[in-house]
Automatic annotation (TrEMBL), chain B:
Residues 1-20 form the signal peptide. The lineage of its organism: Bacteria, Pseudomonadati, Myxococcota, Myxococcia, Myxococcales. The keyword Cell inner membrane does not apply. Pfam families: ABC_sub_bind. It comes from the Bacteria. It comes from Corallococcus caeni. The keyword Lipid metabolism does not apply. This is ABC transporter substrate-binding protein. Keywords: Signal.
Length: 686, 326
C-alpha cells in the first residue's frame, strides 16, 4: 500500500462498507412503504363512490328547489354553469350532467358538453345493462346516476362521471414519491456513512500513520488530539501515549544525555506538544451536503413561489419579476465570493463556513415568511450571499488542503456533495411543498442549514487560517491576465459558443421555464420536483461515463457538439410534449446533452488554446471560463423571462432550443475552422 | 350596520332610564302606510326612549309643507322625521337654496326613503352632511342594481320608466344612461309627462305600451314618488304586456314586480330611528352623523310573476334569492 494510492483504496472500502447498511435501511423502508401503500389503496377506493354520492346530493338540492317552486325542469337558466361550478375542485369528477326522466341530457358541465352526443347514449346503455346499483362502467370512466325527486316524483337524473384512473394515478404518484424518498434516503445514508467513516476510521488511521512516520524519522514533537473513543482512535491514543512517554523521559534526562539524543531525534514539550492535524478534504463533506440539500429544496417550485407574491405593477412584467431573483442570486453569490477567500486566509474554514451558513439559513427561513416581492428579493440576496461564501469556502478548502496528486479526486468531494444534494433537494423539496406548503418547506430548508452548522461545529477541526499555496501567489497579475484573455477574440468566441449556452439552458430553461410551464399544465409541486430531478440523475450517471469515454477515445469535440445538439433537441421536445413521459424524456435529453457538452469542455481547453495556456496559465484561462459561465447563469432567467413575456411559453422555448442548436452549429463551424491546417497543423486528439 | 344598530339598541335598552320629560318627535310623511315610519317609531320605543310623536301627512302634496313648517316653528320639537325626498327638500331646502325664513335649520332632521340624497341636492357627501340633517337611504346604488339585473339575464336593451319632473329622477337617469353606455346596453326611456310637463296617471298604460313596443329585455323601475300609488296598475300592465320588471323598492315588488334588489322599508326606518336615538340620547350632532344605507339588500323574485312571464331565475340566483310565492 503506497502512500499515494491508499486514499483511493480506503475510499473503495468505505463504499463497500457503506453499501450493506444502506441496503438494510432501504430494505426496511421498502417493506414499510409497501405496507403503507396497501393500506392507502384499501382506504381510497370505496371513498370515491361515497364522495360522488355526496356531491350528487348537494348538486341535486337546487334542482329540488327549482322543482318545488314550480319551475319546469327544462326551463332552468344557467344550469350548465351551475354544474360546472359543482364539478369544480373535484379532480376525480370528470363531468356532471342532468337528464330528464325519459333520458334526454338537458344540462351538462363543460367536459360532458364537449363530448359527442353518442357518448350519452352509451352511458344510458351501460346503465341499462348493469346490475351495478347506479354505477356504470364505460371505457376509462365510471358513471354514477343519482335520481332527483320533487314531491314524490322523479324529475330527472344527475349523472356524475368519475375518473376510473384517478385512484391509479394517485397511487402511482404516491408510489413514485415513496421510490424517490427511498432513493434519497439511500443517497443520504451513503453520504452520512462516508463522512462518518472518514471521521472515525480514515482520519485516525491516517494520523496514526503520520505519527509513526514522524517517529520513524525521529521526530517526536507532535501529538494527535483525540476527541472520540473507538478502536481506531484508541490505537492513535496509545501511539500518542508512547510519544508523550518518550518526551517525558527526554525531559527527565540530564542535559548532557539530552544533547546527545537531540542530535538524532527531535522532542517536543511534554506539557504542550505541537498538534498533529491532518486537514482532510472530507471534513466538510457532510455539512456541505446537508447545507446544499437545504438550499436546493426550493429548486422545483421557486418560480411558482415568486409568482404567487407578484402584484401587477406599472413597470415590470410578471415574467421579469419572477426571473429577477434568480439573477440577483447569481450576482449576490459572485459579490460575496471574495469574502470566503479572506475569511479562509485570516480565520479558518470552520469560521468561514459558519459565517456563510448563518445568513443563508436566516435568509431561507425569512424567504418562506416573505409577504411581498421586496422582502423576498432582500432575503434571497442574503441567502445567496451566504451560499456564495459557503460554496467558495468549500471549494477553496478542498483546493488548498488536498495534495496535488489527489486534486481531481478531492474536487469530487465538492462535486459529489453538490450533485447528490441537487438530486435529493429538488425531489424532496417538491414532495414537501406539495404536502406541507411553501413556507414550511423553507422552514425545513432553514432547519437543514442549522443542522449543517451543528455538523461544522462537531466535525470540522479548527485548523486556523488555511493559506493559499505558494504557486497561487501569481494572483496580482490575474486581472491583467483576464483582460488579456478576453482580448483574444477566439477564446471569447469559444466560450460564448460552448460554455455560455449550457448555463443559459440550465438557468433559463430548467430552473425558470420548466417549473412555470409544468405548473401551468397542472402538475403538482411533487411532480415538478420528480421531473426536474431527472435532469440531475442523468447528469450523475452520465458524467463519469462521458469522462471515461472522452478520455479514452479523445472524442472531446464530437461530444461537445452532440451534447449541444441533444440539449437543443431536448428543449424543443419539451416545448411540444404534453404527457409526463415525453416531458421527462425531454428533461433527460437536456440533462444528457449537458453532461456530454460540459465534461469534455474543460479537457478540450489546453489543446485548443495551448498558446494562451502558456501565456496566461491554465488557471487564469479556467477562471475566465467560470466567470463567463456565471454571466450565462445571470442572463439565462432574464432572457427566458423576456421571451416568455413577449411570445408565450411554446414560442420562447422554441427560441431557446433553436438558439442552442444554432450556437452548436456555430461551435461546429468554429472547431472545423480551427482544425484546418494553418492554425493547428496536426489536429490530433489529445 | 344593522348589527351595530342592534348592539346600540341593546346598550341603550340596558341603560334605559325614564327621562324626565318625553322627547317630542315631529313626523312629516309623504303618504300613509310606509313601513319605514313604523320601523322608525318601533326603534325609538325599543331603545327605551319616551317619545311623543306628532304626525303630519302631506299626501304627496308639497304645497302643504309651508303650513307644516309653521306648525313646527310654533312649537319646536326635539327632532323631525322626514319621509321621502319631496318632504325632506320642502323641510330643509336644497343646498344653495336654503332660506332660514322658509326652511327648518335649527331642529335636527332625520330622513328615510330618500333614494339619492346627493343627486337630490340635500347633501354633498354621505360621511356627514355638515348641516342639521342626516338619514337613511333605502335604495341600492345604481351600479349594484345594474349588476344584479345582468346576473339574472344578459342585457342588450334595458327599458326604464321614470319621472323627469322630479330632479332626483333626472339625476338617476343621467347616471343610468352613463352606466348602460359603458356596459354596451341600449337604454329605452319612457315617462308619463303630459304636454304641460306634469306627470299624468292616465298616461301610465300608454307609457307601458310604448315601452313594450321597443321590446326591452328588462324594465327598470326606479323609486319614483309619482308611481307609488299606481304600482299595482304598472305591474299588472307589465305582466299583461309580457315585460319583466326590475324594482328598486319593496312596494313595487309587493304590487307584483317580477324581481328587485330591495331593502325592507321597516329596516330602513329602523336605521333612521338609530340615528334619531344618537341625536336625542347621545346629543350627537346630525351634521356629523353619516348618511347611510343598509349593508344588505336582498335579491327578491316574485314567483307568480315569473310563472306568468315564463321567465325563471337562473340556478345561481335560485341559490341566494328570496323567492316570493304569494
Amino acid at each position: 500500500m503506497s502512500a499515494t494510492n491508499d486514499g483511493s483504496l480506503s475510499r473503495g472500502r468505505i463504499w463497500k462498507v457503506s453499501l450493506l447498511p444502506t441496503l438494510l435501511i432501504v430494505a426496511t423502508l421498502v417493506a414499510a412503504s409497501l405496507q403503507a401503500s396497501r393500506l392507502f389503496e384499501e382506504s381510497l377506493r370505496p371513498d370515491l363512490r361515497a364522495k360522488a354520492e355526496t356531491l350528487a346530493q348537494t348538486a341535486a338540492l337546487q334542482f329540488h328547489r327549482a322543482a318545488d317552486l314550480g319551475i319546469p325542469v327544462n326551463r332552468l337558466g344557467a344550469a350548465d354553469a351551475y354544474l360546472d361550478d359543482a364539478a369544480l375542485g373535484h379532480e376525480e369528477i370528470r363531468y356532471i350532467g342532468f337528464a330528464s326522466p325519459d333520458g334526454h341530457l338537458l344540462y351538462a358541465s363543460r367536459h360532458l358538453r364537449a363530448k359527442p352526443a353518442s357518448f350519452f347514449d352509451k352511458v344510458l346503455k351501460a346503465h341499462a345493462l348493469e346490475e351495478s346499483r347506479g354505477l356504470a362502467r364505460l371505457d376509462g370512466d365510471l358513471d354514477l346516476v343519482h335520481p332527483v325527486e320533487s314531491r314524490g316524483r322523479v324529475i330527472g337524473q344527475l349523472h356524475l362521471g368519475i375518473d376510473a384512473t384517478y385512484v391509479e394515478q394517485r397511487l402511482q404518484e404516491i408510489h413514485t414519491d415513496i421510490l424517490i424518498t427511498l432513493f434519497v434516503t439511500a443517497l443520504v445514508t451513503v453520504e452520512v456513512l462516508m463522512a462518518l467513516m472518514g471521521l472515525l476510521v480514515l482520519r485516525p488511521l491516517r494520523l496514526l500513520r503520520r505519527l509513526l512516520e514522524l517517529g520513524g524519522a525521529g521526530d517526536f514533537t507532535r501529538q494527535a488530539r483525540v476527541r472520540l473513543h473507538d478502536e481506531a482512535t484508541r490505537a492513535l491514543a496509545s501511539a500518542g501515549r508512547l510519544v508523550r512517554g518518550l518526551n517525558r523521559r527526554h525531559a527527565a534526562l540530564d542535559a548532557r544525555a539530552a544533547r546527545t539524543l537531540d542530535a538524532r531525534f527531535r522532542f517536543g514539550d511534554p506539557k504542550a506538544p505541537a498538534a498533529l492535524e491532518e486537514p482532510g478534504t472530507s471534513d466538510l463533506r457532510l455539512p456541505l451536503f446537508v447545507f446544499l440539500f437545504g438550499s436546493e429544496l426550493s429548486r422545483s417550485f421557486w418560480p411558482l413561489f415568486v409568482k404567487r407574491l407578484y402584484q401587477p405593477g406599472p413597470y415590470f412584467s410578471e415574467s421579469f419579476m419572477v426571473a429577477l431573483p434568480m439573477s440577483l442570486w447569481v450576482t449576490a453569490m459572485v459579490v460575496c465570493t471574495p469574502l470566503a477567500g479572506r475569511l479562509l486566509d485570516t480565520r479558518s474554514s470552520r469560521v468561514a463556513m459558519l459565517v456563510g451558513m448563518a445568513p443563508a439559513g436566516l435568509g431561507l427561513f425569512m424567504t418562506g415568511l416573505a409577504s411581498s416581492l421586496t422582502e423576498l428579493f432582500f432575503w434571497r440576496v442574503v441567502t445567496a450571499g451566504g451560499y456564495g461564501i459557503v460554496t467558495t469556502t468549500a471549494l477553496l478548502h478542498v483546493a488548498r488542503t488536498s495534495k496535488q496528486s489527489h486534486g481531481a479526486r478531492s474536487m469530487g468531494v465538492f462535486v459529489g456533495a453538490s450533485t447528490a444534494a441537487s438530486v435529493c433537494g429538488t425531489a424532496i423539496g417538491g414532495i414537501l411543498a406539495d404536502r406541507i406548503g411553501y413556507a414550511a418547506t423553507f422552514g425545513v430548508a432553514a432547519a437543514l442549514v442549522a443542522l449543517a452548522m451543528a455538523l461544522v461545529l462537531l466535525l470540522a477541526p479548527d485548523l486556523g487560517p488555511v493559506r493559499a499555496r505558494e504557486e497561487a501567489g501569481a494572483r496580482p497579475t490575474a486581472a491583467s491576465a483576464y483582460l488579456g484573455i478576453l482580448k483574444r477574440g477566439r477564446v471569447l468566441l469559444f466560450i460564448l459558443l460552448a460554455a455560455m449556452p449550457a448555463r443559459l439552458v440550465l438557468t433559463g430553461f430548467l430552473f425558470y421555464l420548466t417549473p412555470l410551464r409544468l405548473h401551468e399544465m397542472g402538475f403538482t409541486e411533487a411532480a415538478i420536483g420528480r421531473l426536474m430531478m431527472g435532469y440531475f440523475i442523468v447528469t450523475v450517471f452520465a458524467t463519469p461515463v462521458v469522462s471515461l469515454l472522452a478520455d479514452r477515445h479523445g472524442w472531446h469535440r464530437g461530444m461537445m457538439l452532440v451534447g449541444g445538439g441533444l440539449s437543443g433537441l431536448g428543449v424543443l421536445l419539451f416545448a411540444s410534449a404534453s404527457g409526463s413521459w415525453p416531458l421527462l424524456a425531454a428533461v433527460l435529453l437536456v440533462g444528457l446533452g449537458q453532461a456530454l457538452a460540459a465534461t469534455p469542455l474543460l479537457a478540450s481547453i489546453p489543446p485548443l488554446f495551448a498558446e494562451e495556456c502558456a501565456g496566461f496559465g491554465l488557471d487564469a484561462l479556467l477562471s475566465v471560463f467560470r466567470m463567463i459561465e456565471r454571466v450565462g447563469s445571470l442572463v439565462g432567467p432574464l432572457l427566458a423571462a423576456a421571451l416568455l413575456g413577449t411570445s408565450g411559453f411554446v414560442r420562447s422555448t422554441h427560441v431557446l432550443g433553436v438558439g442552442m442548436l444554432a450556437l452548436t452549429a456555430g461551435l461546429a463551424a468554429y472547431l472545423f475552422l480551427r482544425s484546418l491546417p494553418p492554425t493547428t497543423p496536426t489536429p490530433k486528439a489529445p | 350596520m344593522t348589527a351595530r344598530a342592534f348592539l346600540a339598541a341593546l346598550l341603550l335598552l340596558s341603560a334605559a332610564s325614564a327621562s324626565a320629560a318625553p322627547y317630542r318627535v315631529f313626523m312629516v310623511i309623504h303618504r300613509t302606510g310606509a313601513e319605514a315610519d313604523q320601523g322608525f317609531r318601533d326603534y325609538l320605543l325599543s331603545a327605551g326612549l319616551e317619545v311623543e310623536f306628532t304626525v303630519r301627512n302631506i299626501e304627496g302634496d308639497a304645497t302643504r309643507l309651508p303650513a307644516v313648517i309653521q306648525e313646527i316653528r310654533a312649537r319646536p320639537p326635539d327632532l323631525i322625521y322626514a319621509q321621502s325626498t319631496l318632504v325632506t327638500e320642502g323641510l330643509v331646502g336644497r343646498l344653495g337654496e336654503v332660506d332660514p325664513a322658509r326652511h327648518i335649520t335649527d331642529v335636527p332632521v332625520v330622513f328615510a326613503m330618500v333614494s339619492d340624497p346627493i343627486a337630490s341636492g340635500l347633501v354633498t357627501r354621505l360621511e356627514g352632511s355638515g348641516r342639521n340633517l342626516t338619514g337613511a337611504v333605502h335604495v341600492a346604488s345604481l351600479p349594484v342594481q345594474l349588476k344584479a339585473m345582468q346576473s339574472f339575464m344578459p342585457l342588450k336593451r334595458l327599458g326604464v320608466a321614470y319621472n323627469p319632473s322630479e330632479p332626483s329622477q333626472r339625476n338617476m337617469f343621467d347616471k343610468l344612461k352613463q352606466l348602460t353606455a359603458q356596459a354596451g346596453i341600449e337604454l329605452v326611456a319612457v315617462h308619463p309627462l303630459g304636454k304641460d310637463g306634469k306627470p299624468d296617471a292616465a298616461r301610465l298604460p300608454a307609457m307601458m305600451q310604448a315601452l313594450a313596443a321597443r321590446r326591452p329585455d328588462l324594465v327598470y323601475l326606479p323609486p319614483v314618488n309619482f308611481f307609488a300609488p299606481h304600482s299595482q296598475l304598472l305591474m299588472d300592465e307589465a305582466i299583461r304586456l309580457g315585460l319583466p320588471t326590475f324594482c328598486a323598492i319593496e312596494v313595487q315588488l309587493e304590487a307584483g314586480g317580477m324581481m328587485g334588489l330591495v331593502a325592507p322599508f321597516y329596516n330602513v326606518g329602523g336605521l333612521a330611528g338609530f340615528k334619531a336615538t344618537q341625536i336625542l340620547r347621545e346629543h350627537r350632532s346630525a351634521a356629523e352623523l353619516p348618511v347611510e344605507t343598509l349593508s344588505r339588500f336582498s335579491f327578491e323574485v316574485n314567483m307568480p310573476a315569473a310563472h306568468a312571464l315564463g321567465l325563471y331565475p337562473p340556478m345561481h340566483i335560485l341559490r341566494y334569492a328570496r323567492l316570493r310565492e304569494r
